Each structure stands twice: as C-alpha cells, then as structure tokens.
Amino acid sequence: MLGLAQKISEARQFIYDRWPTQPQVGMILGTGLGDLAEQISMVTTIAYEEIPHFLSSTVQSHAGQLVCGRLKGVPVLAMEGRFHYYEGYSMQQITFPVRVMKALGAEILLITNAAGGMNPEYQLADIIILDDQINLMGDNPLRGINNDNLGPRFPDMLEPYDQNLIDIATESAQKLAIDCHTGILVAVSGPNLETRAEYRMLRRLGADVVGMSTIPEVLVAKHAGLRVLAFSIVTDMCLPNELQPVEIEKILEVAGRGSGTLARLISRIFEQLGES
Known about the structure:
alpha/beta, Rossmann fold, five-stranded mixed beta barrel, 7 helices, globular
C-alpha cells in the first residue's frame, strides 16, 4: 500500500472538482446492470480514463464511467461498470475506486453483480441478497505493507455484509412483493466458467452463487470501514447434471430482465436511507 494514499488523494480531488458533493453511498454496477444508473438525477458523468490512477474497463458490457448525482435525494457515486481480476489487473488496482469513494465521504458501498446460480431453488433472473462469502480467487487486495490510516492490519470479517442493510433490503422486497433470496457468494478468478466437478465442489463448500468479482471490493470496503450491501442476479444456472453451454448474449438478456426488478428494489432502499 506504499504510495496508495497519494493516489487516492489525487483521484479524490479530481472527482470533487467535477462534482463537489459528499456521497453517502458508493455503487458498483456489474455486468448488464448499468441501466440502474439511469435512476440517478442531477447527473455528472466522468469517464474512467479521465480520473487519475483509474483503470479502463475492457469488458464490452461495461460503460466505464462514474455517474454522480442523487437517487431518492441521497447523494450517490456510481461506477457504471467495474474492473475485474481476470482482465489482468492487480487486486489493489481493481479495488482502488472503493478507496476513492471512502475518501470522498461515502459511508455505504452497494454492489451488484451477475452470477451463476448453484442453488437448485433459484431461477434465472432471481435476485440474491448476499449475506456471506467465500474467497477462492487466490489473491487478496490487502496483501502487502498495511497503511494504518486506511484501515487495520487484520480487519474482522464476522459480518462482511451489513445486517441492518440486509434487513432494510429484505423488508423493502417484501413491501414491493419482490421474491428475493439471501445467499452465499463464492468468487473465483475466471475468466473461464467452471467444470461440472468444480460446480459440485463449490456447492458442497456452501456457496449458492458463483462469480468473478465483488469479494475484493468487499474486503477493501471492510478494511476502510464502509458498510456493505450486495446483490447478485442469477444469469445462468450452474447445476452439474443439467449444465448447458453459456452464451454471453443470453447472460446479458437475463441480467437485463433482473435489473428492472433490482432497480425497483434499490430505489425503495434509497427511500429508506433518505428517511433515516
């Protein structure tokens, strides 16, 4: 983490000069879920390439820009597209935006992703409220010399996802008659999908959904003292005995279906945050 504080400061100042507001919530929008940014009003957009020390997203379905504004009156800074470990970046690089969100004043990190469903009770486009995680990515963004000003050497992970926020999300889903599940995410490095044997192993480990992101950002958020709420949309079913070839176009189509429902849920959650 040597030199990280200076880079955070430079990126923070650049964004603040363009949008002089303290966000309450930082958001990371995953594959096929960028349309959620359309809910944000009073928008200022900043391309990642313009921001000091930000990366460029190489994933086709990610817009690659920050969307700054308000959602239900709550100031929010949203990443429309994220960075992935499988793109060849380091863990520290892909989680850098979380550090910047914290430096700008964010208190909550809200994350969405597209994931494979391994729980046979799930269906395509189902929304999963994450309540725990298993890191099988083979790396950790907190490795290296720790900067105590950014967070503790050994951050506790008893509650990676904030239970109060989970309760708000669950209650909001009930009020909207949205059928949500709570579940456990396992993250792998990718970019290949898993074999039948690997899906069986991951399921036996206790995971409900599998993805290639989110956990690094959660680790850094917890290190930085942010409260975290995260959602997965089930975009493909990963049942070993019924496995079918995956097509990215189909994943994006399913993510689009689920994102409309998730957008309604997130809007309701922001209403609750605005009232608190």
